[in-house]
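Checklist before submission:
- one chain only
- standard amino acids only
- sequence pasted in full

Submission:
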Amino acid sequence: MTETHHPADEYKQRGSDALKKGNHHEAEALYTQALVLDPENHTIYSNRSLARLKLKNHEGALADANRCMHLDPVFVKSYFRKGAALEALGRLKDAAEAFKEGYDLDTTSSIMRKKYQQLSREYQRQAEENKENPEDNKLHKQWKEAKDSMKRAEKDFEKWKELADKGDMEACANVGTAYATGHGVEKNLPLAKVFWFQAAQDGIAHAQHNLGTNIGGDEGKKWLYAAAAQGNFEAHLSLADIFRLAGDNEEELVWAIKAADSHENLEAQTRAALCSFERGNMGLAAKYFLKACTKMNSSDPDFNVIQCTLGDLYSTGTGVEKDIAKAIDHFKHAAKAGHPEAIFKIHEVYCTEGQQVEAKKALAIIGKSALQTAQHYHLHASAYLLQAKQSEPVDLSHVRTAEMRWKNALNRGYTAAALHLAECATLKKQVGASNEFMRMYVDNSLRSSGRNLEKMLLVGEKYAASVLKTTKQKEYTKALIYCSVARDLVGLANAQIGDIVLDVEATEGGLDVVQEEEEAEMAKEKEEDDAADEEEDEDIEELQEQELEELN
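Returned file contents:
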């Protein structure tokens, strides 16, 4: 049975690869793109939390860790992520508690135990030092505030408990939440459910929601429906979560839209937009993405991805009326917020719409941007080749620049660059080079998919020998056969190799002259490539941290 992969898996893997190479900004962007496709994947939140921690975005790292814990409360690594973020924020007591909770879930984790013990000792030591010299150290103030907060929580609990004993059901619901969260009292979930049940029976919506999410099953769903009927926002989203896990995307969308329409809330509108996008309803997706944008600023974690998505919709007229000005505006917002592909999308739109002056300005910006990873080189090359095709005849100087970028990408492990190099060679009428790159691409494709390359070669050669008369033409037809067995290459391969075969038929006896000219041109360009490589090639450091080895 063929194993199926979620569309987000590719972005997740690319994010992990970037993180291991120290490309933290790129990793964060890739993980964010993965979450657009799979917003309930707790492991992606865990990985993005680590990327943000590396970027010193400690608040963002903490938010992702908390979201991961919400999606899967028994996923131990989320407690480690939370503890690390809290430690970076200087909240040692909270960090120690996070590590302790993680250790309680997995008592075999020595690193959780050591971090808990270390931070507990450090917190106590600093607290004692602050007592001796409180005015010279902010930590004493933090310690005092924490202590005062605990006292206030204890008073809250005493007040709620007293009111609950007198029959106040709102207070009864609050007592349940206090027991569930440890607010002013030791955590006790069974007792929390008792108090929630009493309040839920009396119609307290947030008690119905809390009870429903904690008991689960059909009984839990019944309480969630009751809370949703009263307009409880969390109940709407919880029901959407339940139906998503059950694979009922239609019902998930229904409840996500109810949440968005009933509450002018950013989280609900983003959720409704993503659900609509996944279901292919681009009109609804655009509607809720636009609503969400009005509540966002560039510091919001999903801002640049949503802006880029809206740019795509407006540039193609998908779900909305085509509007190039609006598309460019959204792409510019995304680029300003740090989306790695936004400037390339701007350039592509200008080229597609024939706005050559603006396209050249965008290409100039691209040309100045940093080149580090294979993905960077690929994006740069794609932009230069697209620009080259805007001219008639094709601008070969841009084609050569694209070639150099793709060769760097190929050297960095991006095997699909061979396909693009074949296209460049075809545009320059370098028949042999085109076939060699095409063969390289197809060989890699067959090898990676586990196909029997040797058998393919034998079949291809037998077929070529039976229908052709000359050795030269045999090589070109063999390349065509290679391409035809690569699943994702058939259309482009036929077009490219078809042009090459026509060139061969037209030249007939002049093949040797073509080959000599081609070899001279390739020798010249090799010298240019070698010189360019010395300037552009950069070493990428490998991160050595232990946690990177355990990326999900």
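Reviewer check: Residues 461-474, 483-518, 535-550 have pLDDT under 50 and may be disordered.
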